[in-house]
Amino acid sequence: MNVDRLLRKWRVMFLLIVIALSVYQLRPWAGLNLHWGFDIQGGSRIILRPTNQSVSLEDVTSVLQNRLNVYGLRDIRVRGASDLQSSLVVVEAAGLSEEDVQSLLASEGFFEGKINNVTIFTGDDVRVDKAGIRLQKKGNFYSYSIPVMLSPEAARKFAKATEALFPTGSGYLDKTLDLFIDGQPIDSLQISSDLRGREVPNAQVTGGAETRDEAVKRLNRMTAILMTGSIPTKLEIESIQRVSPILGSEFLRTTAIAALVAAALVAAVLYARYRNPDVVGAILFMSLSELIITLGVASFINWELDLSAIAGLVIAIGTGVDQEIIMTDEILRGGSGKQRTKEAMFVIMATFGTMMAAMLPLAWIGAGAVRGFAVTTGIGIAVGYLVTRPSYLAALDELV
Exposed, middle or buried, 306 (CB in 10 Å: 0-12/13-18/19+)? Predict the structure, then answer.
């Protein structure tokens, strides 16, 4: 094998440049720059179905993303999806409990304040003053207060509603300000007598719990709902999946070991067939190149790698090895150089076309695991068709 002539081939040089760019994108010296899915890093995946299918998925996902961010959850991803029958919302996050799912995701979060069953303000009328939020212990009870600023219209409604109330001997009016979320009462606040008939621009939303952890959770939930507003439609829970991060790290370790064993077995089979270490080394190098470039593309587009995506990656690389074996056999059969190249390229194009025709519908309509599998497989196949297969075909003249 003449290495100098091999490196002069532009397809081979193009492959080496793409590999270098992919390595730079992955940055292995600073920890792999990859976005692992929830089944690798651990967490929860919740699939929700909007009851009103006419609403914009972008509006729903935007409110959910903001709500979860305010709530303080980490590694949150919210996106729209489809199952051919209806639109879906997929939420992936670490540290999301069953109670959080019900109160933050399945709840519309429509906030109301009423006096004598008359709505004074909604979530759209209030603005939270985060600097004034307080959590304190009173005896065996933890209470919180959230200062809010009311809109001028809400202040006028408050003045009109309280003007018809009467003070009691305790210094409060005879009716309370009742707070609701999705029609369910959450708190009732007494109204000071000196606020009767006044346009009050400020108010406080209060609550509490017997333990600090529970009080913090309720405070965060209320703050998230007040700051992000209500979801445009009610969401029904389709499914909930949970994975421990320990399982994900163990899976990656096992996968790495299995990949090394598989590479050794493939090398042994290829050597037994061709008795040419250059051909064996080239096929293994192309497989490694395809892996690096596919991961580089996934990193560049911020694509998540979960179990299904890794399965798609394995299929793409395995398909590549099959194609390279077929191309090698075509070249070794003899005949004119142009005819051999034409027949080998036909193998590449036919496989690329059929695989992409199968993956594109899955990537378009799929949700969760199906979409991850289709997209990663499609990226791997495209990398093979555009980069590694042409490079291997160009190098074969120097190898056989």
Answer: buried
Query: Could you give the domains of the chain?
Result: 3-37+244-399 (1.20.1640.10), 111-214 (no CATH)
Q: Note the Cα 279 to chain centre separation in Å.
A: 40
Sheet strands (E) in 9-82: 35-36, 43-50, 74-82
Question: Can you give the pTM of this predicted structure?
Answer: 0.59
Q: What is the pLDDT of residues 143-174, one digit of tens each?
A: 888 888 888 998 899 889 888 888 877 788 88
Q: What whole-number distance in Å separates Cα of residue 300 and Cα of residue 316?
A: 19
Give the 3-state secondary structure of residue 2: coil
| Torsion angle defined by CA atoms of residues 316, 318, 324 and 328, in that order, rounded to the nearest 10 degrees | -160
CB atoms within 10 A of CB 361: 11
Note the pLDDT tens digit of each residue in 86-131. 888 888 776 666 666 666 676 777 888 898 888 988 888 888 887 8
Query: Cα-flanking dihedrals φ and ψ of residue 192, to 5°?
Result: -65, 145
The 10s digit of each residue's pLDDT in 10-56 is 888 888 999 999 999 888 887 778 877 767 777 777 888 888 888 88
Q: How many CB atoms lie within 10 A of CB 104?
A: 25
Q: Which H or E run includes 145?
A: strand 141-150
Of 34, 76, 78, which Cα lies nearest the Cα of 300?
34
